[in-house]
Amino acid sequence: MRIKICGITNLEQGRAIAQLGATALGFICVRKSPRYLLPETIGAITSNLPPTVSRIGVFANTDLPEIISIVQQTQLTGVQLHGLESPQFCQQLRSQLPDVELIKAIAVKTSDSLDQTKIYADVVDTFLFDAYAPQQLGGTGKTFNWELLKGFTSPRPWFLAGGLNPNNIQRALKMTQPDGIDLSSGVEQSPGNKDLHLVANLFKVIWKKEYEL
Ligand SMILES: O=C(O)c1ccccc1NCC(=O)[C@H](O)[C@H](O)COP(=O)(O)O
């Protein structure tokens, strides 16, 4: 299972979290987020991470040339689209960045929200199902109704996101069986400042092993 820790803001924490077992790290490229990082800072972190860790840039309603420019500056291996990007936009991005994993976030409000997967299935690699919050695009710390995923088959591999933490992860995995999980505020002391003890606890709960910090 893939484990993505999102909203990394410094190299020390990024390396420690990769060392603990995260398979992907997320970097917020949305200017109004408290976890926003400049491309230069992302590049300085990504160039010092183990090569096996996926580096995902999180964007929301950013235009195509800007995404492409940031990916080229920062050695991102994936782009996560968290806004109202259309399937046509995803298609264009994919043709410009064919080797970059394209993840489309879907805010899950009702079971109808999941129907969106049909129109994006051919133009993205992966989905990320997150909580719907009217005022915030992501990193909300809110869960959604996981029952909505019962009986749903995604046309692409998918991450479960939204309000996950070491206390609810076992229940979430049991109920939803995702291909990956994505956590941000549930393993933080404050926005952008990850709590390594909470991250170690997450891995302990998932894999039933002790981790040294
Ligand atoms: O994290 C942010 O600040 C953010 C801002 C704008 C768009 C997306 C953002 N985060 C996207 C993520 O992938 C988060 O990990 C995801 O929403 C889950 O967050 P949380 O509920 O805090 O675990």
TrEMBL record:
Keywords: Amino-acid biosynthesis, Aromatic amino acid biosynthesis, Isomerase, Tryptophan biosynthesis
Domain N-(5'phosphoribosyl) anthranilate isomerase (PRAI), residue spans: 3-204
Pfam families per UniProt: PRAI (PF00697)
Matches recorded under CDD domains: PRAI (cd00405)
Pathway(s) of this molecule: Amino-acid biosynthesis; L-tryptophan biosynthesis; L-tryptophan from chorismate: step 3/5
Keyword match Membrane: no
EC code: 5.3.1.24
BP GO terms, sorted: L-tryptophan biosynthetic process
Molecular function, one GO term: phosphoribosylanthranilate isomerase activity
Catalyzed reactions: N-(5-phospho-beta-D-ribosyl)anthranilate = 1-(2-carboxyphenylamino)-1-deoxy-D-ribulose 5-phosphate
Gene3D superfamilies recorded: Aldolase class I
Matching HAMAP family: PRAI (MF_00135)
Homology family: Belongs to the TrpF family.
Protein known as: N-(5'-phosphoribosyl)anthranilate isomerase
Gene: trpF
